[in-house]
Amino acid sequence: MSERLQGKTAIVTGAASGIGKQVALRFLREGARVAFADRDAEAVTALVADLGEGARAAVMDISDEASVAQAMEALVADGWSPDVAVVNAGVQLFGHDAKAADLDLEVWRRTIDINLTGSFLTIKHVVRAMLATGGGSIILTGSPTGVRGEGADFTAYSASKAGMHGLGRTVAAAYARDGIRVNTVIPAYTETPLVSTLTGDDEARTAIVGRIPMGRAGSAEDVEGVMVYLASDDSAFATGAAFAVDGGMSTL
Questions:
Q1: Which of 75, 81, 122, 158 sits between 20 and 30 A of 69, alpha carbons compared?
Q2: How do strand 136-141 and strand 242-245 relate by DSSP bridges?
Q3: Mean pLDDT of 71-92
Q4: So what's the pLDDT on residue 215?
Q5: How do the residues of the chain divide into helix, strand and coil, expressed in percent and rounded to 5?
Q6: Does some domain include residue 251?
Q7: What share of the chain in percent tops pLDDT 70?
Q8: 198 occurs within a structural domain
Q9: Residue 120 lies inside a defined structural domain of this protein
Q10: Residue range 158-180: average pLDDT?
């Protein structure tokens, strides 16, 4: 492993499973100290138990500002102020999210509260910490549904991700001169527990993979490599950008 993140401290939200977990583990292997942040205290605590002193759990409900603020204050107080933040935690309420005319308001609110408001609250408190230390890199996990009409049956999720993309661009512009970079990674079909819930069966999976020019689904490893680049100093002049990790789907 190259240890491209040696000397850096990172926080990754939604780190108890899926892409967040894989990215956090990769950052560790690349030499960073990593705060694994998740609202599932039991899962995230168990995950970091055997990872050594370079990993710690940060129990955080991103939709609750007091929870985010307390977790960030604890990290800063312990000398873990982040150089890198991966804003990854989110939900997609399969079986409940729907076309606009059929969408229940509570499903809309819960999705927006976690995906968009939660991203804002995480960014807000991460930016405050980074301003005090001279900057850093913030990486958002976006979605194709946030940039094109891929999610006709997922109104709340698509809207939340579109808002996240806009939020990222705005924060990037606002804090560029403060040394804070903000970029978005856009995975397409990636083999994670969340996406497996969407496909449900081999026929559905085959249909989705058939639309990918590279002819295969993405993996967490595909996504984490781009995130390592954005977390590292190699991407020092990249901000406000969106990086598609979708096997060519964005070319269609």
A1: 158
A2: unpaired
A3: 97
A4: 66
A5: 50, 15, 35
A6: no
A7: 89
A8: yes
A9: yes
A10: 97
Q: Which two structure tokens, joined as six digits, stand for 200?
A: 């449900």
- CATH code, domain with 90: 3.40.50.720
> What's the pLDDT band for 241 if we cut at 50, 70, 90?
very high
Distance (Å, rounded) from C-alpha 122 to C-alpha 126?
6
Q: Which domain range does residue 89 map to?
A: 9-244
Q: Of 198, 199, 191, 250, which Cα lies nearest the Cα of 223?
A: 191
**Whether the Cβ atoms of residue 104 and residue 93 lie closer than 8 Å to each other:** no
Concerning whether 157 is annotated as a catalytic residue, the answer is yes
Domain count, the chain: 1
What is the DSSP-derived secondary structure letter of residue 148? S
Q: What is the mean pLDDT of residues 193-197?
A: 59
C-alpha dihedral over 195, 219, 118, 76, to 10 degrees?
Answer: 150
pLDDT beyond 60 at 252: no
Please give the distance of CA 2 from its chain centroid, rounded to a whole number. Answer: 23
Helix (H) or strand (E) holding 57: strand 55-59
Structure token pair of residue 156: 């709340």
Query: pTM for the complete prediction?
Result: 0.92
Residue 212: predicted pLDDT: 75
- DSSP-based three-state secondary structure for 149: coil
The answer to which of 6-15, 172-181, 239-248 has the lowest mean pLDDT is: 239-248
Q: Which of 157, 175, 189, 229 is catalytic?
A: 157
Segments of 106-168 assigned E as strands: 136-141
